[in-house]
Design brief:
The complex is a heterodimer of chains A (134) and B (136). By secondary structure, chain A is mostly beta strands. Helices cover 5% and strands 36% of the residues of chain A. Chain A contains 1 helix and 10 strands; from the N terminus they run E-E-E-H-E-E-E-E-E-E-E. Chain A has a 7-stranded mixed beta sheet. Chain A has a 3-stranded antiparallel beta sheet with strand order 1-2-5, with no helix packed on it. Chain B has a single domain, classed as Metal Binding Protein, Guanine Nucleotide Exchange Factor, Chain A (Beta Complex), CATH 2.170.150.70. Classes of the chains: A mainly beta (134), B mainly beta (136).
Chain lengths: 134, 136
């Protein structure tokens, strides 16, 4: 399905075709650091459908597998945009779901790197919640 | 308790003394966009104990429902979010540090959730989603 979105400040916008069956959560420590939060929630988009306007900053990290991954974010507001393999050729863009306008329609289908997940993430029902903020 | 951590590339390090009771989840749409994820986890660190090396990029966010402007600091090299705080020169009274970058993250359990009205529908039921210990 078609998705679109962008960073918080509007510098970067994108669109593409997403496969709802491939939506995932990653609990690896790289994702915890690079998001600053408990886990990453991503929606993959095919390379030939992906269009982006604005110039993200790209940081290349080396994953546990040894593979290099580009991590793209907005240089003005810091919103993470996507990860992808470096270099030319066909690729998948792993879009950071928090920036996707249609994210409400996607449910993660699998979780990876659960061995480093935060101990409390499976069950938030025990944590007091309020509609807005104090 | 003492907390310390760094961004992914190491350009920025932080440390401070924080109360583990002051760990929050925020499900607001600004935090969803700012993390690129489902929600944000942060801990309040008093300004008097907060120390940092390196210079983050600061983004002035003005979209809070309260109307309060917030500085969102992140590493300009690797994109890791570091903290948010009040605008102004010099040390601020408090820093809302992003728990994902902290070495003590496994010991910091959120005590409350804000903006639950915009939470993703599935966040309370992660157990139902297929799991792989490592990569697929």
């Amino acid at each position: 399905m078609r998705i679109d979105g962008g960073c918080h400040c509007g510098t970067i916008t994108y669109q593409g075709e997403a496969d709802p069956e491939k939506v995932s959560i990653c609990h690896c420590t790289d994702c915890q650091i690079l998001t600053g939060t408990a886990y990453r929630f991503s929606i993959p988009v095919t390379g030939d459908s992906f269009k982006i306007s604005g110039e993200p900053t790209v940081y290349v990290k080396t994953a546990d597998s040894g593979a290099k991954r580009e991590q793209a974010f907005c240089p003005k507001c810091g919103s993470p945009i996507y990860a992808a393999s470096p270099g030319p050729g066909p690729k998948i863009y792993s879009i950071r779901a928090g920036t996707v306008r249609q994210r409400y329609q996607f449910v993660p289908r699998r979780q990876i790197w659960t061995h480093s997940k935060q101990p409390w993430v499976n069950d938030l029902t025990g944590i007091p919640a309020i509609e807005k903020q104090p | 308790m003492k907390i310390n951590g760094s961004c992914h590339c190491g350009a920025i390090t932080v440390e401070g003394e924080a109360d583990p009771e002051r760990v929050n989840i925020c499900h607001c749409t600004d935090c969803q966009t700012g993390t690129g994820s489902a929600f944000r986890v942060s801990i309040q660190v008093p300004g008097s104990t907060f120390k940092m090396t390196g210079q983050p990029t600061n983004y002035l966010k003005t979209t809070a429902d309260s109307g309060n402007p917030r500085i969102q600091a992140f590493c300009g090299r690797c994109g890791s979010p570091i903290y948010s705080t009040t605008p102004g020169e010099g040390q601020q009274p408090s820093y809302t540090v992003r728990v994902g970058i902290l070495q003590q993250r496994d010991q910091l359990t959120p005590k409350r959730q804000n903006w639950f009205r915009s939470a993703r529908s599935w966040v309370t039921e992660l157990d139902a989603i297929h799991k792989n210990q490592k990569q697929a």
